[in-house]
Design a protein that fits this description.
Rossmann fold, eight-stranded mixed beta sheet, six-stranded parallel beta sheet
């Protein structure tokens, strides 16, 4: 069958949405289907196009057999509101203009975040007269309201009306966790129209031989106990807590612990400048790194921090960082409440702390640093009970089954 997948983010970008679409679509191609991804020139999080690409009206490449079509967008860094909405709206318009240049599909898939990509899918499915599978990875606009990026009540109310209309237009909705499913049902989406297919991990990416000593030397980590945050350093990550925890460690005279912040985002430069101004050598920032380097950075870590700000919305989130830490058999320090905490605690895969609580963060890190047997036990359990059951191969097949059902079996070629 032919599948058209609309996504704002795709490889070689390394954020969670890009990784999820990449892992799914390349497996669908291996299963014998024709997949076209309609996306942008890679540019996140800085809004600067990656080397080797240009922000053109239309360009095409093949990535592991996935027909990857890139359209022009108004470029904006991953911060602020007005310019980012301009970026999102420009994708909607460019994607629709590009439809005549892509193969006519049997089914259309559109994914959030962001919200206007979902609406591009709604309009594309109507123009092409094909069913729409809507993937909800984030509740928008609620997610940007939660981090204070949108405050105008009238605009919020208008976007919420568009959100509900988008759900009604979808033939089926896929979401990434039970918490999101519950919130979608509360918004009127029928339970029978929702499938939960969580994020997962491609374990083969984390199964090689790595040189942690080289990574530690490159970032001046030495023999310290390293707790790493790997991912987008955005408004919702709440990584102020790392700076506060570093101050507490310094007050206690614990110079044998380091926090490694891997990635870039809206607040990375600000956090790094504050750490430098305070002389917090305990916090090391790498900036944006190629996603191919993530396994070696995790291999050089002793524990992995997964953290979001304390807001009711994030009680529904299952961060993909959980599964990547599990794939490297690393113990997790989890600062996320709700479904993520239930999963990690139930899997005996890490220590759960209150989000934005630097005292609990310090206690968790010091407990793991002082008990190698516990850290090893939690890491092994994380691999067995998080990485193995959430392997990308099985999840991609579950997703493909939903797509085939929606398309009525599709057109075999």
């Amino acid at each position: 069958m032919r599948i058209l997948f609309l996504t704002h983010y795709f490889a070689p970008e390394g954020n969670a949405p890009a990784n999820r679409v990449y892992e799914m679509t390349r497996r669908w191609v291996r299963a014998g289907h024709e997949v076209t991804v309609l996306t942008c020139a890679p540019n996140v999080p800085a809004g600067v196009v990656y080397d080797g690409y240009r922000n053109r009206w239309f360009q095409r490449e093949s990535i592991e057999g996935v027909d990857t079509c890139r359209v022009w967008t108004y470029l904006a860094a991953n911060r602020g509101t007005v310019r980012r909405i301009g970026n999102y709206l420009s994708y909607l318009g460019s994607a629709l203009l590009a439809l005549p240049r892509v193969p006519r599909p049997d089914v259309v898939i559109a994914t959030s975040p962001q919200f206007f990509c979902g609406w591009a899918g709604v309009l594309a499915s109507r123009l092409l007269r094909r069913p729409l599978l809507l993937e909800i990875r984030d509740l928008w606009p609620e997610s940007i309201v939660a981090v204070g990026a949108l405050t105008q009540p009238r605009l919020i109310a208008w976007l919420e009306r568009l959100e509900r209309a988008m759900y009604r237009a979808a033939a089926h909705v896929v979401t990434v966790g039970d918490g999101y499913r519950e919130q979608l049902e509360a918004r009127g989406v029928p339970a029978a129209s929702i499938s939960v297919i969580p994020n997962g991990v491609d374990r083969s990416r984390f199964a090689g031989e790595f040189r942690p000593e080289a990574v530690r030397a490159a970032y001046g980590l030495g023999d310290a106990f390293v707790c790493s945050y790997v991912g987008t350093v955005g408004l919702g990550c709440g990584l102020d807590v790392v700076l506060r925890a570093a101050r507490l460690l310094r007050e206690r005279g614990r110079r044998d612990v380091r926090f490694l912040v891997v990635g870039d985002g809206a607040v990375r430069a600000e956090l790094e400048a504050r750490a430098r101004a305070e002389g917090l050598a305990e916090v090391v920032f790498t900036g944006r790194v190629d996603k191919a380097r993530i396994p070696e950075l995790l291999a050089a870590s002793d524990a992995c921090l997964v953290h979001l700000t304390r807001t009711p919305l994030f009680r529904s989130v299952l961060p993909s960082k959980i599964f990547e830490a599990g794939a490297m058999a690393k113990p997790i320090v989890l600062g996320v409440e709700g479904h993520a905490a239930e999963l990690v605690a139930g899997a005996h895969a890490g220590l759960c702390i209150e989000p934005e609580n630097e005292h609990e963060l310090v206690e968790a890190v010091l407990r793991l640093a002082g008990d190698a047997a516990l850290a090893k036990e939690l890491g092994e359990s994380a691999y067995a009970r998080l990485a193995v059951p959430y392997d990308s191969d099985a999840l991609a097949q579950r997703y493909l089954d939903r797509v085939l059902e929606l398309a009525g079996g599709g057109t075999r070629r």
